[in-house]
Every structure is written in structure tokens, then in C-alpha cells.
């Protein structure tokens, strides 16, 4: 949470701060949300915020958090398979993999007018 908070404070201090941010997980996002609120800004009116994970806490924070829902088990399986291929053949070319995702729209994002 602390890293999300500190990073968001730095972003908000820029001459042109962002009007939207994407966080890598819900915990970092909660820290970023705290920094946004402390700056007197409103989510999503001033800054939209989105996160990966879709942990249950996304429904408990205010405003509720828009997230990208990803099957982390499948992500781990595919990452392990790629790792095993590289171990078997260190000369192997870079691997690509697709994992389905779903955006869970909640209150932390809004459409541009």
C-alpha cells in the first residue's frame, strides 16, 4: 500500500498530473486512492483508477474499484510451462501466451464526456 501511495503522490506533483492510472494490484491501488483523496481530488471525477486482481476488497473500498479480473491460476500454469520449455531448450525463442480477462466496471472509472 505504501508504494502505491508514494508513487501516486509523485504523479500528482507533476506539472500535468494524470487523469487516470492503472495499478498492478488492489493493495497498491488502495494506497494510490489514499493519496488522491489527500490531494483533495475525487475519484473518478478528477482521477480514474483501475487495478488488476479483482480481489474481494475491490467491492469494499469507496468508491468501489474497477478491476481487470484475470485467472491467476491459469497465469501461473502458463508461466510455469514457458519456464519449463526454456529450461529444456535455453535457445528457445521468446514465448507468448494469451489469458482471458474481464473488466469489472465499478465506480472508480467513468466515461469521458
Shape: elongated
The secondary-structure class comes to alpha/beta
SSE order: HEHEEHE
Let me know the CATH homologous superfamily: Response regulator
CATH architecture: 3-Layer(aba) Sandwich
- How many strands? 4
Q: Main beta sheet: strand number and arrangement?
A: 4 strands, mixed
Assigned CATH class: Alpha Beta
Strand content: 15-25%
Mean pLDDT across every amino acid position: 92
Q: Count structural domains.
A: 1
Radius of gyration: 17 Å
Distance between the termini: 31 Å
**Low-pLDDT residue spans:** none
Q: Enumerate the strands of the largest sheet in spatial order, edge to edge or round the barrel.
A: 1-2-3-4
Q: In CATH terms, what is the fold-level topology?
A: Rossmann fold
Tell me the helix content: 25-40%
How many DSSP helices? 3
Can you characterise this structure?
Helix 2 (26-38) links the parallel strand 1 (20-23) and strand 2 (48-52). The two termini are 31 Å apart. The chain is built from three helices and four strands. The protein has 113 residues and is an alpha/beta fold. 36% of the residues lie in helices and 16% in strands. The protein has one domain (2-104): Response regulator (Rossmann fold, 3-Layer(aba) Sandwich). Helix 1 packs across helix 2.
Amino acid at each position: 500500500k505504501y508504494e502505491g501511495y508514494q508513487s501516486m503522490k509523485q504523479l500528482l506533483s507533476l506539472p500535468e498530473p494524470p487523469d487516470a492510472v492503472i495499478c498492478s494490484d488492489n493493495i497498491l491501488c488502495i494506497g494510490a486512492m489514499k493519496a488522491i483523496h489527500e490531494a483533495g481530488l475525487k475519484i473518478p471525477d478528477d482521477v480514474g483508477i483501475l487495478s488488476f486482481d479483482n480481489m474481494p476488497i475491490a467491492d469494499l473500498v469507496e468508491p468501489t474499484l474497477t478491476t481487470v479480473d484475470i485467472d491467476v491460476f491459469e497465469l501461473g500454469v502458463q508461466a510455469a510451462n514457458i519456464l519449463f520449455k526454456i529450461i529444456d531448450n535455453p535457445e528457445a525463442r521468446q514465448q507468448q501466451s494469451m489469458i482471458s480477462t474481464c473488466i469489472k466496471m465499478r465506480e472508480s472509472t467513468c466515461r469521458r464526456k
